Amino acid sequence: MSAIASTSTAASTSGTRPHYTISEVAALTGLTAHTLRWYERIGLMPHVDRSHTGQRRFSERDLGWLAFVGKLRLTGMPVADMVRYAELVREGDHTRDERRELLEATRRDVLTRITELQDTLAVLDIKISHYGTVCGGTPT
Amino acid sequence: MSAIASTSTAASTSGTRPHYTISEVAALTGLTAHTLRWYERIGLMPHVDRSHTGQRRFSERDLGWLAFVGKLRLTGMPVADMVRYAELVREGDHTRDERRELLEATRRDVLTRITELQDTLAVLDIKISHYGTVCGGTPT
DNA sequence: TAAAACGTTGGAGTGCACTCGAAGCAAGTA
DNA sequence: TACTTGCTTCGAGTGCACTCCAACGTTTTA
After folding, report:
1. Is the confidence at residue A41, as pLDDT, over 50?
2. Is B124 in Cβ contact with A110 (below 8 Å)?
3. For residue range A87-99, what is the model confidence (pLDDT) as tens digits?
4. Nearest residue, CA→C1' of C25
5. Does residue B28 approach strand D to less than 7 Å at its CB?
6. Beta strands B56-57 and B49-50: pairing type?
7. Does B71 lie in the same domain as B21?
8. Which pLDDT band, with edges at 50, 70 and 90, does B138 fall under?
9. How far, in Å, is the CA of A34 from the C1' of nucleotide D20?
10. Residue B13 gets which letter from DSSP?
11. CA separation (Å) from B78 to A71, B74, B83, B131?
12. CATH number of the domain where residue B8 is located
């Protein structure tokens, strides 16, 4: 539970930009430390800084990336696709078009998903309104 | 691919209501025969009729139920919860309140999900618009 | 300084929702 | 009748996304 305002880290430990320990990032993102390490292993994190003893130190930029990944995760995008996107980012500027494509495809998926959910909502409302009436009928 | 209009079954084989074979239902719902059998095994199907030789014969009502289950599945509801709902239906009228509760909770989840997706959509739109501009910046 | 808390690694395990395979009947077609 | 297709059951296998473990090193607190 040692959040951001804890004793040492975060803001200004050694003169450079803020660094977060893995447990701080876990608290901030809701992901577990296990998951964060796993993200790095599979290439979903773009290479996290280490302290002189080899411990991870996450930057603000890393947090931003994780926030974005969190959004992608909400869309239901498979992890493999997110990794693909991360690779494209690493490969540099000549992949911009492909990245935009990928994002636009995702955008379309999200739109579809929203429509599906709204349909479902309509069905649920009908069902629920049936339960409102006292008479029996055909309960499914 | 033998859809509904195939040779024998469906409409009026033996005088009673329409009966669909498992492969017809698979074609209609997009589920596999395996999955349909599995649904029955775990109690997610309310007991499918059998032919005199023991083969499944699905009714219109079964199709309606599967359509509803499909909607619930779209919400991301765990199968165990759907089974719970199916059990409540089987238990009869005194579970109406609990069923309505369950449906209303699901409704709330769906609403939350839609909001999340709309947030994500906003983020994607921002990203995509960045890719529209030619200047580099900080591509993440 | 000692203890507690936190970090590292590789690899194995978990839970979910299917998904498939094998062996064996049964029904319809050439 | 022979063949093809489809059905049955049970149990094992798959793919995904984590999730945890063991063994050990580091850092912080009392």
Report:
1. yes
2. yes
3. 999 999 999 999 9
4. B53
5. no
6. antiparallel
7. yes
8. low
9. 9
10. S
11. 21, 10, 9, 37
12. 1.10.1660.10
Q: Domain range holding B86?
A: 1-91
How far is Cα B58 from Cα B64, in angstroms, rounded to an integer? Answer: 10
Average pLDDT of B114-133?
Answer: 92
Token readout for B69 is 């289950």
Are B108 and B135 members of one domain? yes
B71-87 per-residue burial string, b: 16 or more CB within 10 A, e: under 16: bbebbebeeeebebbbe
d(CA A11, CA A17): 7
Query: What does pLDDT average to over chain A?
Result: 84
Residue A104 with chain B: CB contacts under 8 Å = 128
Reference B68, options B97, B89, B41; nearest CA is B89
SS3 state at B7: coil
**Residue B137 is encoded by which pair of tokens?**
């910046």
What is the identity of the amino acid at A36? L
With CB atoms and an 8 Å threshold, state whether B110 touches A117. Answer: yes
Check B74 against A103: CB less than 8 A apart.
Answer: no
* Distance separating alpha carbons of residues A86 and A92, to the nearest angstrom: 10
* Backbone torsions φ then ψ of A50, nearest 5 degrees: -125, 150
Q: How many domains, chain B? A: 2
Alpha-carbon gap, residue B99 to A31, rounded angstroms: 33
